[in-house]
């Protein structure tokens, strides 16, 4: 190994976050949880930078005062391999397959060059398959420490393909630290690769002051159900739409669905087919201010996630944490990392995935019982404050960088409830 950074002091690491996707402007909604973690850790990492894939010719820029370095891998009109949809959704397209090789090669060479120029000492690699490839040259030739962060999508691919599983295992073994966003993701890493991972989740801003009561009484107000997220298969909105007529047979409700994605048109058509157009609003992307208002206005947050055709599901479910932070009761599917956030009967109600009947029953149970709704909201808030407060999550991340810079062994502590 040739260490070109031998004189770089390790008490203040120069961290570069490596990702396929990042906000393209101040108003962009891409990976908001990653952006918030970056913003929260930046004061303790004055040299922090983002290394991200280009998008339709987008040049390097700044977001929240943090440099975002974009690498090019194709002519601008074809440069849409990342952003807007999840990788499992895009991987079905021919263009995705054709652009993968230039994407990986250009990313590897660009990041190696940037690491030399910027004297990077720690690479924090998100989705280590395939992006672990980008860390190999900096690791082998520059002595840079590598943190590999798994979110779940790469594990879904590894479950279906032995070559991908082998590659993921190889990349993780080259890492100095392995992280997971939930206990589910950590368990999958262990099952597929035999390797241990430190669990550092993403979080939410926890409100200590209860929201003011609504102007209308419970009897006058039509209950509002809310879903927030990308409109992709694993979010399971079709399950919620099929459950809604069963709810409406018992009581009036409204449903607001925020976000965009490749399933939006299909689900809008399903809503029309089910006669729900006057009950369901597809709100598209909304501002942070509007989203905050929706969390406060809603009576119940619903998250009907499923395992998609690729086997991918929710690695954690940050929107669930945001709902709990606002003292809102939650009904969600018992899949993936959701079970770290929602403890059935304590911080929300869990139902089997792809089961409209069970989902409608749980929704009606919460709406019919104000005491239960209030209890779930308060206990959920306490749970979120204890385990998912942004300050805590950011401090855990900074501490892990500090440990790595001082050559301390990677932690295996469990930062979520056992």
Question: If you had to describe this structure to a student in words, what would you say it looks like?
Answer:
- By secondary structure, the chain is of the alpha/beta class.
- It folds into two domains: 15-203 and 389-405, 3-Layer(aba) Sandwich (Rossmann fold), CATH 3.40.50.2000; 224-387, Glycogen Phosphorylase B (Rossmann fold, 3-Layer(aba) Sandwich), CATH 3.40.50.
- The chain is 42% helix and 15% strand.
- The protein has 15 helices and 14 strands.
- The strands form two sheets. It has an eight-stranded mixed sheet, sandwiched between helices.
- A hairpin with a 2-residue loop joins strand 3 and strand 4 (66-71).
- Helix 4 packs parallel to helix 6 (162-173) and helix 11 crosses helix 14 (370-387).
- The radius of gyration is 22 Å and the shape is globular.
- It starts with 14 loop residues before the first strand and ends in a 13-residue tail after the last helix.
- The model is unreliable at 214-218 (pLDDT under 50).
Question: Would you summarize the structure shown here?
Answer:
This protein is of the alpha/beta class and 418 residues long. Helix content is 42%, strand content 15%.
Based on CA inertia axes, which overall geometry fits? globular
Q: Which spans of ≥5 residues are poorly predicted at pLDDT below 50?
A: 214-218
- Strands in their spatial order, largest beta sheet: 3-4-2-1-5-6-7-8
Q: β content, as a range? A: 5-15%
Structural class, from secondary structure content?
alpha/beta
Q: What value does the Rg take, in angstroms?
A: 22 Å
CATH level-4 homologous superfamily of the largest domain:
Glycogen Phosphorylase B
Number of domains: 2
At the third CATH level, what is the topology name of the largest domain? Answer: Rossmann fold
Largest sheet, described in full? 8 strands, mixed
Q: How many distinct helices? A: 15
The beta-strand count equals: 14
CATH architecture of the largest domain: 3-Layer(aba) Sandwich
> What is the N-to-C succession of helices and strands?
EHEEEHHEHEHHEHEEHEHEHEHEHEHHH
pLDDT averaged over residues: 90
Calculate the terminal CA-CA distance, rounded to whole Å: 40 Å
Task: Name the helicity range.
Answer: 40-55%
CATH class of the largest domain: Alpha Beta
